[in-house]
Write a structure and sequence with these properties.
The complex is a heterodimer of chains A (670) and B (296). Chain A has 670 residues and is mainly beta. Chain A contains six helices and 30 strands. In chain A, the strands form three sheets. Chain A has a 22-stranded antiparallel beta barrel, surrounded by four helices. A four-stranded mixed sheet of chain A has the order 4-3-6-5, with no helix packed on it. Chain A is globular. Helices cover 14% and strands 46% of the residues of chain B. The longest helix of chain B has 34 residues. The chains are: A mainly beta (670), B mainly beta (296).
């Protein structure tokens, strides 16, 4: 019955992803890696790959990210996949929204910040690996910055919009999104709205996977006001409400997950006296998350698990030319994040069982950073980055302090000073060959869960986790070498990297503690492991034998070990995606082969399961049409054509992924 | 101001008799003279009132349980407790007044004897006698009631007072409610068949976190004799019966004084907890199936 109003909606409406990609073909809707901007307009390999994979308009942000050589997705349900860089985990990677810090409100990491934005909200995603810059924040694993879409101003008044609608058969899911823009020479405004609903999906064996459903809406308003020719103000307001979100791999689902995000940005460009750009932002966001097990059968004891996070902060950043072929970027930022999460269990005849899983706590962070870029000669470029971060963590209520007093923590100060520095040198060794070497030292603070977590159950290894306020910060030494070879029809890039992480933070089984969660295997306490080695390689090839044909292949491999020689948990196996695309006028056809090797090198300490190899074949096609006054676009395809029954190594639980899936997507823009 | 001024002039710091000092002094006096006068005046007034006016009686921050006159001693006795008396350990407070002048009595010899009259038989219960001196006008002791008042029988507390040279006795009838959760346990030692009474004292206001744990152990020697016991060692194991888990880092209660054992109990969440207590006499297990319930 719902289909009728929804189809009307799609006829009337138009979507954002589409608009951005169609209208602003030149904008930075890119993945920038190891940001090197000086060399001009030439797109780097990652930008090319991003463009290639995002040409499939039916793909979600997660689909596209998962195909990039540097990224992997940790999956707990069909919703809310967590992007991680290489073998680093979410605590080691900074996930930022347009430079803003935003902290999920779920103690079980069900809500990485990326779930609170839609592709409709985004202009680009910048992925910076650890060898490159860390202007935005200290981390050992790099940063992912999701850049918000921006309203535009226009000489004449322009009203434009796009609408998208799509359907996927495996989950009987559909989505609608609408994007409207209005621009004058003085101001511009963009409003977006997205609605998604997904039912339980069907896996490769034909079975429906219970608790894989979700539903959400997302609204945003982006405004821009020109103060003068070179100066403008931006206002971003986002609201994202998800509900009835199933997490098949977890014992609980999510009742609701709501985010409210607001930012005011001041931008000044071409200031003269060398300053190219100054940007200052004030922001605040709040996330509320509520775990729920009322729909689960055979729940031994019913529990509620609400969580809340609130962050506010600011930053200022400026870029200046300080001489011939030299550029300096300076940044200062500060933020405050407050977290609280609790659990209440209900058992007849006794008082409700209530505890704080994140005892009320606060992180105050401030940092300064500088990045210096020097074009030594026509073929050599040097980049030096440095950052210093100071973070102070504290428990803010007596109740919270009482909780951790159980483990002997009596409120001693927890603060971390983290210096980072990296040097990156690029040089064209040959007309077609460019090499980039980077060396760096950096670090990260422990996360709130690692410091203050109070019996957080981790379904992945089946242990309850207890925080440790005495943790030392993680520090890392990194080395990275990238070779890039370009010749008319070929674009080839290969990267090798190694990180030695000292004081690697990981949970360690402590038999002293008794489990809190029924059925848990034991209790782990976060500890600093002597050191761990994370190394690997990734490569990609883009080959155009003829202009209408494109062949793309991406390969990634990672190897890790701790100081005892054991594997770290959650390390993706060797993986390859090879894709062939053929353009025939306005029509394109694409075949894709996705291969993953088995992962047999697993962490016994984390009770990790081995994962088998799999092959997937996809077929996609699209047509770009134009009719009087508007453009349209139709995409369709079949994913997992042979209905393979498989799971990826980074998927939690023994939950199979989607089986054969037919999809169709229609976009209209005016 | 002085500090700013000195380097400019290059002068030495001013002596107390210098102009600066005088200027400063007169400045203070001018500015604050009315305030100083007021303070001086009010000091005089209050000191006068102390001599002349009878102070208002200090309110006793507890619930009054019973009162009466100990005739021979010439004393009015008021019995207080934190809340209505119930089975288990009750801290009690006595306020004594001269029965004629109503003046509070701060020094007296005070002893009490709880008695249960069950018709066919009578028995007493453990008691901790108040000292001879009051603190904040209260003589503090404790009564450990072993059963509630009711059809089975009724409780009285016999109070004997020596006030200077005068002696008197008073019997206060009291009603003992049944505590919502058992606050008193008893066991017969496996080692020597001695009978022990264990009274729960703390935590009285349990919270998630670290709580003080206190119990008092009495030996039941006869119907009338309940000496405090310090011979046992105690092991504490908290447990949530509905969840089947415990809590870490508890501290076993150890004997401090007069049969009181103190330790720490940690609760990791609210709800129903069992505080399992194992008692040992030396290395031998005296009892290992005693527990108190805490539901909060």
């Amino acid at each position: 019955m719902k289909v009728i109003p929804i189809s009307i909606l799609c006829l009337l409406s138009v979507s954002t992803v589409y608009a951005q990609r169609l209208v602003k073909e030149d904008t930075v809707r890119t993945v920038l890696l190891q940001e090197v901007k000086v060399t001009g307009k030439q797109k780097n390999q990652q930008q090319n790959l991003f463009q290639y994979f995002s040409a499939n308009k039916a793909a979600t942000t997660e689909d596209v990210l998962a195909r990039l050589p540097e990224l992997s997705m940790v999956r707990r349900g069909s919703y809310g996949m967590e992007p991680v860089i290489r073998s680093f985990n979410s605590g080691q990677v900074n996930l930022l929204l347009d430079g803003m810090r935003i902290h999920g409100a779920c103690t079980d990491k069900m809500d990485p910040a990326s779930i609170y934005v839609e592709p409709a909200n985004l202009q680009s995603i910048e992925v910076r690996t650890n060898g490159g810059s860390f202007l935005n924040g200290s981390s050992v694993g790099g940063s992912i910055n999701m850049k918000l879409a921006e309203a535009t101003c226009h000489d004449e008044r322009v009203f434009s919009g796009t609408a998208n609608s799509g359907y996927h058969s495996a989950a009987r899911s559909y989505y609608q999104s609408l994007n409207l823009n209005y621009a004058t020479y003085k101001w511009g405004i963009t409003a977006t709205g997205t609605y998604r609903k997904s039912n339980n999906y069907r896996d490769g064996s034909g079975k429906r996977v219970d608790f894989s459903q979700y539903e959400k809406v997302n609204y945003s308003i982006h405004g821009k006001y020109m103060l003068n020719e070179n100066t403008y103000l931006k206002l971003d307001l986002l609201a994202d409400d998800g509900w009835n979100i199933g997490y098949a791999a977890l014992p609980m689902d999510v009742g609701y997950a709501n985010a409210r995000i607001g930012a005011l940005t001041f931008v000044k460009e071409n200031l003269g006296n060398g300053w190219q750009k100054l940007e200052a932002k004030l922001y605040a966001n709040q996330v509320k998350h509520y775990m729920d097990d009322t729909h689960r059968p055979n729940v031994p004891i019913h529990m509620d698990m609400p969580g809340k996070s609130a962050t506010s902060g600011m930053y200022a950043e400026g870029t200046t030319s300080i001489g011939r072929n030299q550029q300096l970027t300076l940044r200062a930022d500060a933020s405050v994040t407050a977290l609280k999460a609790s659990m209440t269990m209900y058992q007849e005849g006794t008082s409700p069982m209530y505890m704080l899983t994140w005892p009320d706590n606060r992180q105050v962070q401030s940092g300064v950073a500088a990045q210096y870029l020097l074009q030594l000669d026509s073929i050599t470029q040097l980049q030096v980055s440095a950052r210093a971060d100071y973070s102070d963590f504290s428990l803010t209520t007596q109740e919270g302090k009482d909780h951790l007093a159980v483990f002997g923590y009596n409120g001693q100060a927890v603060n971390h000073f983290i210096p980072s520095v990296s040097v990156q040198l690029s040089r064209n060794l040959h007309r077609n060959l460019k090499a980039t070497v980077s060396l760096g030292m950096n670090g990260r603070t422990p996360t709130a869960s690692e410091l203050f977590g109070f019996y957080l159950f981790n379904q992945f290894d089946g242990y309850d986790y207890i925080g440790n306020p005495g943790l030392k910060q993680e520090t890392a030494q990194q080395a990275e070498l990238t070779l890039q070879w370009r010749k008319s029809k070929w674009k080839v890039q290969a990267t090798g990297y190694a990180s030695r992480v000292s004081n690697y933070i990981i949970g360690k089984y402590d038999p002293k503690y008794s489990v809190m969660t029924a059925g848990a295997r034991g209790v782990k306490v976060y500890e600093n492991l002597g050191h761990a080695l994370l190394t690997g390689a990734e490569g990609s090839v883009i080959f155009n034998p003829v202009p209408q044909t494109q062949i793309v292949s991406v390969l990634k491999y990672a190897y890790t070990r701790d100081n005892a020689g054991n594997a770290l948990p959650m390390i993706a196996p060797l993986r390859n995606i090879t894709s062939v695309k053929q353009n025939i006028h306005r029509l394109w056809l694409q075949g894709e082969l996705e291969t993953a090797a088995a992962q047999n090198r697993v962490s016994k300490a984390a009770n990790e399961k081995q994962t088998g190899e799999f092959y997937l074949c996809h077929f996609r096609m699209g047509y770009n049409g134009q009719a009087k006054g508007f453009r349209w676009q139709l995409n369709g395809g079949v994913e997992n054509i042979f209905d393979a029954y498989y799971r990826e190594h980074l998927d939690w639980g023994n939950i199979a992924r989607q089986g054969r899936n037919f999809y169709l997507q229609l976009g209209i823009g005016f | 101001m002085l500090c700013l001024y000195m380097p400019e002039t290059g002068m030495l710091p001013p002596s107390p008799h210098s102009n600066y000092y005088n200027a400063f002094n007169s400045f203070v006096m001018k500015r604050y003279f009315p305030a100083l006068c007021f303070i001086a005046l009010s000091a005089i007034v209050t000191s006068c009132s102390k001599d002349n006016i009878e102070p208002a009686p200090v309110a006793i921050p507890h619930q009054k349980i019973a009162d009466g006159f100990a005739i021979g001693a010439g004393v009015k006795v008021e019995l207080y407790a934190r809340k209505a008396l119930s089975t288990g350990y009750n801290t009690v407070y006595f306020a004594l007044y001269d029965s004629i002048s109503k003046a509070p009595i701060e020094k007296a010899q005070l002893s009490m004897l709880p008695m249960m009259d069950m018709g066919t038989m009578k028995h007493s219960a453990p008691a901790e006698q108040p000292g001879t001196a009051a603190k904040d006008r209260l003589f503090t002791g404790a009564l450990v009631f072993t059963m509630p008042s009711g059809e089975m029988g009724s409780w009285t507390v016999e109070v004997n007072i020596t006030n200077g040279t005068k002696q008197g006795k008073l019997i206060l009838p009291v009603t003992i409610a049944n505590a919502p959760a058992a606050r008193l346990k008893s066991f017969v030692s496996k080692v020597d068949n001695a009978k022990f009474i264990v009274a729960y004292i703390e935590p009285s206001a349990p919270k998630v976190g670290v709580n003080d744990m206190e119990i008092a152990i009495f030996r039941s020697k006869s119907m009338m004799e309940f000496p405090a016991d310090s011979s046992l060692s105690v092991a504490l194991t908290p447990e949530m019966p509905t969840m089947g888990h415990g809590s870490p880092n508890n501290v076993d209660p150890v004997h401090i004084t007069k049969g009181h054992y103190k330790g720490k109990v940690n609760f990791t969440m609210t709800g129903l907890w069992y505080l399992n207590l194992d008692f040992k006499a030396g290395a031998a297990i005296s009892n290992d199936n005693t527990f108190f319930e805490v539901n909060f």
